[in-house]
Amino acid sequence: MTAHSAGDRLELYADYVCPFCYLGTRSLAQYRETRDEPLAVEWHPFDLRSGKRNPDGSIDHDADDGKDDAYFEQAKQNVERLQDEFGVEMTQVFAGEVDSLPAQQASWYVSQEYPDRWAAFDEAIYTALWQDARDIGSPDVLASLAESVDLPVDEIRSAVDDDGLRSELEDRFRSAQRRGVSGVPTFVVDGTATSGAVPPKHLARLVEQR
């Protein structure tokens, strides 16, 4: 295993509405606490509902995505197992009615315009959804979260309604798919990827053994 390097960098593909992404970020936080040197994390947005979106961007909840009751029961069991493994409390296991696209659009804007405050905003979004069961698809909720981390509320509201930003985000989604990302969370270091809410020791191997 190589020593930790100040230049270590990890890419993370994630969708806020995915419970495994939330759990994956908890695992990542636990791994980062073990490091002597910082780990740069580059966030890439990903839309799990891209195949269910109407032309106007809304979600067709009745569209068949091949996920049946057995799938969701297995996913529920996996979420609960990982909660125990990582010591994470969640107020809900799924958030199927929540549309994460507004949150991703706001987060993408912050990552470009206020990169020093992006991590705090990212954390606030995850906490709002998975700890407080708030609707992160709501512009009012996103404005409140922006205010809580000292971001300009008016800019965040404008970002959510910006069609140009939405097009840019859709380009990012397509770019992720071209790179072979088909599910989230996906962690990538130097071209090597691992998917799923893997434990901190797996992230350590991904980052340090190369």
UniProtKB/TrEMBL annotation:
One Pfam family assigned to this protein is DSBA
Which GO MF terms are attached to this record? oxidoreductase activity
InterPro entries, per the entry: DSBA-like_thioredoxin_dom (IPR001853), Thioredoxin-like_sf (IPR036249)
Q: In terms of domain of life, where is this protein from?
A: Archaea
Q: Which residues form the DSBA-like thioredoxin domain?
A: 10-206
Coiled-coil segments on the chain, per record: none
- This chain belongs to which protein, by name? DSBA oxidoreductase
